[in-house]
Amino acid sequence: MNTATKLSGFALGLAVVFGATYGVGRVADPVSPPAEVPHDAGGGHGDDGGAGHAGDNGAAAHLPGGLLVSDRGYTLRPVDAPAGQFAFQVTGPDGRAVTAYDVAHDKRMHLIVARRDLSGFRHVHPEMAPDGTWRVDSPLAGPGVWRAFADFTPTGGEALTLGVDVTVPGALTGRPLPAPATSTTVDGYTVTLAGTPQPGRTAELTLSVSRGGAPVTDLEPYLGAYGHLVALRQGDLAYLHVHPHGEPGDGRTRPGPEVSFSAEMPSAGAYRLYLDFKHGGVVRTAEFTVVAGSPTAPGVPAATGTPTAGTPAATSSPTADAGHGVPGHGHD
Ligand SMILES: [Cu+2]
Prior knowledge:
By secondary structure, the chain is mainly beta. The protein has 3 helices and 18 strands. It has helices at about 5-20, 25-30, 50-60; strands at about 70, 75-80, 85-90, 110-115, 120-125, 125-130, 135, 145-150, 160-170, 185, 190-195, 200-210, 215, 230-235, 240, 260-265, 270-280, 280-290. The protein is globular, with a radius of gyration of 19 Å. About 35% of the residues are buried.
């Protein structure tokens, strides 16, 4: 693939992700993707989901990603795998495993997992066998009910994020959602968040990375950007994948300390944000709880500190982040 093709593919990927995730492309974005996809392409799958399919045309079009295990004829299916591995297929409208995917953000498949209590976030990149089976060292780090999100673009189709629950047996230790905070630490790095996410409209979120009190100004490109931000909604783990403004090498985007995003939350409530950034050859994840809209929305944990001027923002969460934001966990 030559550079021009790759770049245009990347740009298209961005547009599709935004359009599909937020629906904003439909309203204001001149490069919004085609709104219609060939829903009739999967005419043969009525035997197991006729009623559900009716909703694909309307409801699914404006849903956040990750809520559906099957959408627009594509279905996420975990398959048996040896201990220590996680494997799955995506079946297409013809019922067979999809083997043709477009590259988006350097990869054909992005697999994101988090426990239902929003702990244990991981973002990994499986390898596909010729039969369409994707395999990866299992990112499911311990017992619990996990949500696995497959974020991909089937060749010839729209970008999709499908989600499926996977249970890892063992003693469950549920964790309350950490309180909202505007600063967190991971592996010696401090990441601060400026901006307030809003339900139903776009807000600017700026994340700043420092280490030892010094701004980090040499972030490294990771998957074609200086940062990747995933937001998961508390309660149903609706999935939002947000890409930053600008990209490495565009002549205006600096490699830190700030990475800024435009994000629109689909509803009021609490979200967990996960920022993947790369420095020193290692990808790390900084996590925040944020609240869009009313801070008294159901399920929103009380803030532990009010980050007023002159007061250092509450660092990290009161409940230990053990097993959460694990340093250096395997992105590749
Ligand atoms: Cu990825």
